Amino acid sequence: MKPISIKNNQSIPRSSIPEFSYEAFFALNTGLVAEKPEIHCVNYFGIPETDGIQLICCMADDLEQVILISSCKIQPDRILPSFSAKLFCFEKFEREIHENFGVKYSDHPWLKPVRYPIDRADQTQQIANYPFYSIDSEELHEVGVGPIHAGVIEPGHFRFICNGEQILHLEIQLGYQHRGIEKLMVQNRELSRLVTLAESIAGDTVIGHTTAFAQIWESLCGFKTTREIDFSRTMALELERIAIHTGDLSALCTDIAYQLGSSVFGRLRTPIINFMQEWGGNRLSKGFIRPGQNRFRFTPELAARLREVLDAFTPDFLEMNKELFSLPSALSRFERTGVVSTEDASAIGAVGMAARTSGVPRDIRTTHPHSLYPELRHEIKVKRHGDVYSRVQMRKNEVIQSIGYLKSMAANLPTEEPIPTLSAPGEGLFALSLVEGWRGEICHCAVTGSKGELVHYKVKDPSFHNWLALALAVRNNEISDFPICNKSFNLSYCGHDL
User: Fold this and answer.
1) Residue 395 CA: distances (Å) to CA of 79, 244, 275, 392
2) Which of 178, 195, 258, 468 could make a disulfide contact with 253, Cβ separation 3.0–4.6 Å?
């Protein structure tokens, strides 16, 4: 028996997912990763049933451009050998399964709470009693940061173990703002409410998460998108990428006290998000994407306006980057700071920009493309050093790349065509959607019931993988370098906590 192979944004009958014994399930999925570096886990979760828990594992083969789906039925009181003891990239998935259902593992290396959902299996687990790792030593000290931060940063706690100024270990505790997004996706029946929830998963990735939801809903309904719909979503994803990367360059300059870079990059972000308001009525793209619709046509007038915006943006963006990368004081803070090795990035299952800056070529736009990305023939940008400097350079390179895509698309507008009617979702289906948001790989999974209603919805933001990369990056760095390490990843608290 083999796992079932599907394409990105494909729906299949849930009953067609092969069910293995746990021993075979374990050997299959750990073996896939161990044997083929092009395969990684995009989602692994449990679904409660009357007679136990169904585990579903989704493994993406980036070389073959397919996702391999397998399942296993277990009882929550059974003690299982953990995938994580063999391959650490599964550790957070298994921790979440343990937290949600009380599933026990005999050899999990780090079995701690992940999110503290209100319906967690063990109600004695309180966020105030998080079991931090500690070292008993008179020479070491601990530094706690958060969960409340200055400004409008979301809540999260960082616990450092230091030898003087040197960080030996960082543990990141999240789970402070659990909103129950996944439960609400199942409880609500109106499509308008579901898409609004999808827009709220992570406020800086509205297009990324809403595109994933729209694609999965259309897949469940058997809806085939038009070229106009694909055009708008592709363009909006790249505009969101430019806006956030540029804003992050401003923030990184702020963290090294480079006021000119902070001001210029901050100013350059504004016309990009303002263009989204001109196009769709909201600077952060709320209300822009809806399943089975293209609410805001991209007209020749908008194409001319976008070229004007990009023509003004590009020279200033390039000049400011030239200044930044020739400034010795900036380079001294960026270079060889916050390094994540290729081996570590691969071992923890890093995705998106965090993976690519450490030499792991992982990008859904190439490996599991959707919308117009097959036509764009996206080339994955890869850096090898895995430091802050690489992550800063990656932002610059991806912005330039995205500008090229936008200009090419604006010169070849799709013709208006009738949009098919969106039907109701099919019964008893499983669907999966992958999107490369600006932060990295977004994965949504959905299961429908006997009436086509959602009975399970699973969201994975790229931050779910990459917070551990930040914890590894700061080891042996000075604690004063933590802010630029943190900002060089710019991970999401709410995207993790859901």
Assistant:
1) 44, 9, 20, 5
2) 258
Q: How far is CA 468 from CA 39, 80, 221, 346, 472, in A?
A: 20, 24, 36, 12, 6
Residue type, 236: A
Element (DSSP H or E) covering residue 57: strand 52-61
Residue 44 sits at φ, ψ, to 5 deg, of -150, 115
Each residue's pLDDT tens digit, 238-255:
999 999 999 999 999 999
Taking 3-state DSSP, the helix, strand and coil percentages for the chain, each rounded to the nearest 5, stand at 45, 15, 40
pLDDT for the residue numbered 146:
86
- pLDDT one-digit tens code per residue, 50-73: 999 999 999 999 999 999 999 999
**pTM of this prediction?**
0.96
Residue 144 identity (one-letter amino acid): G
Sign of the dihedral through C-alpha 175, 171, 471, 89? negative
Q: What is the largest CA-CA distance in the chain?
A: 72
Cis before 147? omega within 30: yes
Sign of the CA dihedral 199, 201, 207, 208?
negative
pLDDT, tens digit, for every residue of 139-157? Answer: 999 999 989 887 778 899 9
CA-to-CA separations, 49 to 19, 270, 455, 456, 492, in angstroms, rounded:
14, 48, 11, 11, 31
Tell me the two tokens of residue 80.
């299982």
Q: What is the DSSP letter of 425?
A: P
- Alpha carbon 364 to its chain centroid, in Å, reads 11
Give the domains, in start order, of the chain with CATH numbers: 1-114 (3.30.460.80), 204-461 (1.10.645.10)
Q: What pairs with residue 444 in β-bridges?
A: 433, 459
Pairing of strands 429-436, 441-448: antiparallel
The answer to whether the CB of 96 falls within 8 A of the CB of 45 is yes
